[in-house]
Amino acid sequence: MNAEKRDRGLLRVDGNECKGCGLCVEACPPKVIAMSERLNHYGYRTATYVGAGCTGCGICFMVCPEPGAITVLRAMAQRSAAGSGVTMGTEGAMPCASN
Amino acid sequence: MSSEFISEYEVIHAKPKAFYETYARKDELQHQTHYCPGCGHGTIHKMLAQAMDEFGIKDRTILISPVGCSVFAYYYFDVGNVQAAHGRASAVATAVKRSRPESIVISYQGDGDLAAIGSAEILHAANRGEPIAVIFVNNAIYSMTGGQFAPTTLIGQKSTTTPGGRSAIHEGYPLHVSELLATLEAPMYIERVGLGDNRQIAQASRAIRRAVENQVRGLGFSFIEVLSPCPTIWRLSPVESQRWVREVMEKTYPLAVFRDRTKDAQPRPMPQEPPALDTIPQIIGVANGDVPEDSAIRHEPVTDVDLHVRVAGFGGQGVLLLGEVLAEAGLDAGLEVSWLPSYGPEMRSGTSNCHVRLSREPIDSPLVTAPNVLVAMNEPSLKKFDKSVQARGWVIYNGDAFPPECVREDVHVLALPFTQIADALGDARAANMVMLGALLEIADALPQTSVDAALRRLVKNPRFFELDERALARGRELYRESVREVCHAG
Ligand code: SF4
Ligand code: SF4
Ligand code: SF4
Ligand SMILES: [Mg+2]
C-alpha cells in the first residue's frame, strides 16, 4: 500500500444489523457506499463500502437507524506499526468487512 | 513495504455505550432493534445515546418510554427505564424527577402519545417548567396501531381514519406542539428539527445533545420535536420518506428554535422538601388528637369483616354482576367496599374476573391478589387462581368434579354443579347468584336485607330479580347442607 492512496476513513458495516434501508448510501458525500447484491441472513441487501474514498466524515453513521450497523474509522497520524489503534487488515477493519 | 507507510485507523463512530450490547426483547434478532428499515426512531435513539455517552450520564439517566412504536425503548437503552401509560410519560417524568432530583430524566414520546392523549400532560409539565428533557418524535401519524390520523397529521394526508385525507373541517388543523408550548412562560428550550437530509440530521443531533446538556446543567424544561420518517405507514421508501420530511412535512412544521433561555440561565432550584408528616396537623390547623367525637377513626377498627374475593369465569357467566351485588350489599351494610372488574381486550367471550373487597376498615388496595374467597365459575379460572387463595380460605367451584391437581390441604372447597342447579331453578344463567348465595352463607357478614337492596338496585327486571332471589336462597341452603353432610360424615 502506498501513502498517497491511503483513505482518511474506513467504513465497517455489520451485515447482520443492517436493514438495507439505503439511507447511508444516499447520505455519503463521496458516494462510496453501495447496496450489496447478495441478501443477508434476514433477506436484506446490506450496505457495502465500495472499497476506497471514505473521508471518515461519519455522516453515514449519523443517519443510520440501526445503533450498531455502522462503525466509522479514521486514519490516525501516520506512524510506525507499533502504535495503538486498528491496523489495516486486521479484525474486520477491512473495507467491506461484512460482505 | 516500510513500516512508516502502514496506515492505522481508530474507531471514531461506533454504537454508543448507552445501548445494551444485545437486546433481550426476543430470543432471536437480539442485535437489531424492532424498528422498520429507515425508521427515524433508530436514528433519534442513536443521537440520544451519543449525548448520554458524551456527558457520561448513563448511570444517572432515567428514560421514560411511551406507548407507540418506541414502547420498547427500554430494551435498547442501558439506563434506568420506566415505561409509562399512553400519553403519561411527561407526567411520569415529573414524578421521577421530583423524587430523584439528581437524575437526568428524559421523556421520549411519539405524536399519537404526546399530542393526542397526552396533550394535557405535556402542556402542564411544560407550564411548570419541569426540569426534564422531552424528545417528541413527530411522524404525523399513529404508526404502531396501523396508521390512524393523529393531531399532527397534515391537511390532506391520508390515513386509515381519514381515507379521503385530513380536512380541517372534520379533524381540525395540525397541532403545532412546539409553537404551542412556546407560548408558555416556563420552558427553557424548545426546538423543532427534522431528519430530512444530512444537514437536518446534524442539527437534530445538536439539538438533542443540547436538551441533554440542559439537564446536566440543571436547567429547566427542554423540548425537542423531531420530524421523523415512518416509511412503513407513509408507504414510501426510506429515502423517499426523508424527502417527504424536508419537502412536505417541513412546510407545515417549520424547523426553528422557538425558545432559548439557556444562555444566562441559572440552575433551577430544587423543589422544596415536603413537610414532615407529624407537622401536618399543625399546618392544616388541627391540633393532634383533635378528631371529632363521631369520626369513624375514633372507634376501634373492627376486623370481623375482611373479605378478599376474586370472582372469575367466562364472559357472559355474570362474573362482574356477582361481584357488583356483593360490593353493593356491603355498601348498604355500611362497610368499606371496592369492586374492580378486569377483563381482556376481547369484546365477547374470553375470560373475565373481578376483585371485590369488603371490610370494616378503609381499603388499602382494590386489587385482590391473594383472595380468601375464590369463586371459580369454570375450570380454567380455577386453574388460573387456585394457587393464589390464602391458606384457610375458600374455593367455591362450579363443577362437581374438582380437578385433582387443584386440591389443596389448606383451603376449604365447595364444589357443586351450580350451572345445573340454576337450570333446575329455571335459568342456567342464575348460577352466579347460587354461588353468591353460598358465599354469603360462608362469609356470614351481611344481612339479607342488604343483599335484597343491592339486588333491587342492580337487577331491574322483576322476573330476573325473583329468580336471583331464589338462586341466592338456594345457594345458602346448599352450603348449609354441605356442612351437615360433613358433620354426618364426621
Ligand atoms: S464516513 Fe463519510 S465518506 Fe465514509 S462512508 Fe461514511 S458517509 Fe461516506
Ligand atoms: S447501514 Fe444503516 S443506513 Fe445503511 S442501509 Fe444499513 S441500516 Fe440503512
Ligand atoms: S411503523 Fe413507522 S414509526 Fe413504527 S417502527 Fe415502523 S417506520 Fe418506525
Ligand atoms: Mg406517530
Provide structural commentary.
- The complex is a heterodimer of chains A (99) and B (490).
- Chain A has 99 residues and is of the alpha+beta class.
- Chain A has a single domain (3-76), classed as 2-Layer Sandwich (Alpha-Beta Plaits).
- Chain A is built from 2 helices and 5 strands; from the N terminus they run βαββαββ.
- Chain A is globular.
- In chain B, helix 13 (418-425) packs across helix 14 and helix 14 packs across helix 16.
- Chain B starts with 7 loop residues before the first strand and ends with a helix.
- At the A-B interface, helix 1, helix 2, strand 4 and strand 5 of A face strand 1, helix 1, helix 7 and helix 9 of B.
- Strand 5 (86-87) of chain A pairs antiparallel with strand 1 of chain B, so a sheet runs across the interface.
Give a nutshell description of this structure.
The complex is a heterodimer of chains A (99) and B (490). Chain A has two helices and five strands, in the order E-H-E-E-H-E-E.
Tags for this model:
heterodimer; A: 99 residues; alpha+beta; Alpha-Beta Plaits; two-stranded antiparallel sheet; 2 helices; 5 strands; 10% helix; globular; disordered C terminus; B: 490 residues; alpha/beta; Rossmann fold; Pyruvate-ferredoxin Oxidoreductase, domain 3; 2 domains; 7-stranded mixed beta sheet; 6-stranded mixed beta sheet; 16 helices; 14 strands; elongated; disordered N terminus; binds iron/sulfur cluster; binds magnesium ion
Main beta sheet of chain A: 2 strands, antiparallel
Radius of gyration of CA atoms of chain A, rounded to a whole number: 13 Å
Q: Percent of residues of chain A in helical segments?
A: 10-25%
What gross morphology of chain B would you assign?
A: elongated
Low-confidence stretches of chain A are 80-99
Helix content of chain B: 25-40%
Report the mean per-residue pLDDT of chain B as an integer.
Answer: 91
Could you say what the CATH topology of the largest domain in chain B is called? Rossmann fold
- Tally of helical runs of chain A: 2
- Uncertain segments of chain B are 1-5, 294-303
Task: Return the domain count of chain A.
Answer: 1
Give helix and strand order of chain B, one letter per element, not per position.
Answer: EHEEHEHHEHHEHEHHEHEHEEEHEEHHHH
Label the structural class of chain B: alpha/beta
